[in-house]
Design a protein that fits this description.
With about 350 residues, this protein is α/β, with parallel strands linked by helices. The protein contains 14 helices and nine strands.
Amino acid sequence: MIHELIGARIESFKYLERHASLIEEICESVYNTLIYNQKPTGQKLFTCGNGGSAAEALHLTEELTGKFNIEREPIPGICLCADPTVLTCISNDYGYDECFARQLSAFANSGDILVVFSTSGNSANIIRALQVAEAKSVFRIGLLGRKNSMAEQICNYSFVPDCKDNSIIQEMHLTIIHMMLEYIEVKMTRMVDIRFWRTTDTYGFLSNFFSAPITIDEKKWPTTEHYYQAMKFPDNEELQEAIRKIRSCKKAKQKASDSPGLREDWEKVKFDVMLTALRAKFDQYSGFKAALIETGDRTLVEASPYDYIWGCGRDGSGQNLLGKAIMQIRDEIIKTMDAT
């Protein structure tokens, strides 16, 4: 009997192999949405299922938010089966068919992804979730178990194995989950560019807004951004001090923007001013210096969608001056190390 059970599972893997192109397309669509073509709003992946499929739905999102094999930035995954209070509240007030759909109505945005797990492909709450997702322009992926199901008709991509054994179907779904996770993580490590913007990201310490006080000419500045903004007014010590004392980077930047008296040579000297601030930052924080060296020769990109001067801008056409300045600092550090 055990040999027969193993044989059935070997056949399921052969089926996966025959449909490798479809599985890769599914994995690539998830990777492109969540990582490569990530929008400033931040796309999310939602999952849902019933019973054993709910367990698989939860497994996918917890591995995205945590990690699978490789240390990386967290990826936003939300399982609609995870909160029993929400499920029972919605089911009690609106019926079980709405338990996933109503959550999507609350949280999903255009461009997000919904992955549904259903061996039948006809569960009413799964169909309602897909209908809401379709109405909200959410990309829909189905890991299903029956051909020509209602769910298959609504999904953008569907994996439907030629199998009648629900346990083997779910095992195939689990294998696809693991392949998807590994696919995403491996591609993340192969990305040529290191993109930074939010201070909470893995490379957030590269941001000018990262809270790391620096000392220049015996004066302490809350961030490199504070120093940069204050140096727009070299002859106005009172304004410099006012900028230095503002806690928020955004407010310090706004204070400088609203103040008259910008130095006439600012466009000529601003890059050098930034280099001065960055040299102080990486000289005074050995951990930052070590992390910068570890980036090797990878291109550093300030990925702000709003800044086309210091960042790359929404369409990638920006000058990325901050990324270039930090790469110059990295080269200086490495040359100094090689000389000693």
